Amino acid sequence: MASPLPLALVQAPAHPSADLDSFAASLEQLARRRPAVRLYVYPELHLAEPHPGPGAPGTPCEELAEPLDGARDRRLAALAGDLGIWLVPGTVYERGADGRVYNTAPVYSPAGRRVTSYRKICPWRPYETTAPGTEFVVFDMDDHGRIGLSICYDAWFPEIARNLAWLGADLIVNPVQTPTSDREQEVVLARANAIANQVFVASVNAAGPTGVGRSLLVDPEGRIRTQAPGAEDCVLTDVIDLGDSARVRRYGTAGLSRPWEQFRPGDAPLELPLYSGRIDPRTWSTGPGPARSGTEED
């Protein structure tokens, strides 16, 4: 049985990338006020703002990118270790070994180390110029459960949430930086991805002026547990049991619908021409066992 997970979703505007000292001070203050919280999640590109305040010029990702294992990484790892927390500090611009720039979400553990990272698979084209990632990522969080990672526009592609659920994710963490009117649709998608895959979904948007807020946490049956009403700075907190995902899959959404039980061994495979692939009933299942190929975990 999974143990309860106290978490905090920090809806805040983008932070100056060069000012890790003030970010650390702010997080330390939050941690002192909320000593029970185990996981802190920040918005997309939270540490990728070149200049503070409204009216800042567009973020030059080429200039801000650095290798994932650079000084920024070491500082964030040490911060998580000092505070004894799990930390998703939003996303950063990563300079890959191939020279390309990626929009990457690192994850740090209470042991003071980076346990995994995820590169955004679906940049918001043509507006975003980062290179797309190619791997789905989940990781195990102590005895709490398995977490899957997606970033902002990834939520618009049901294949991504589906694969994370198939890899055993109980919670999908989706850092967001949306300043546009389609946040209304993203709220719907957060609930839809939770319902279709019977997982928790945490969609953490930036506060104004960087984003329009409306961060939310959705349970595996699609119910909103907590939500920011607007773009104000705020911290959403909750205590969730990631074992609820397995419970809903076993007994059904509203005690009825069990989509992961739809296909059974012996059913004919369903060809998927769009993907040059298929749904094979022999592999249509989820579970808390070892992560399947293409994942990283602690």
From TrEMBL:
Residues 5-242 form the CN hydrolase domain. InterPro entries: Aliph_Amidase/BUP, C-N_Hydrolase, C-N_Hydrolase_sf. Residues 279-298 are annotated as: Disordered. Pfam families: CN_hydrolase. Keywords: Hydrolase. One of its GO terms (molecular function) is hydrolase activity. The keyword Membrane does not apply. This is Carbon-nitrogen hydrolase family protein.
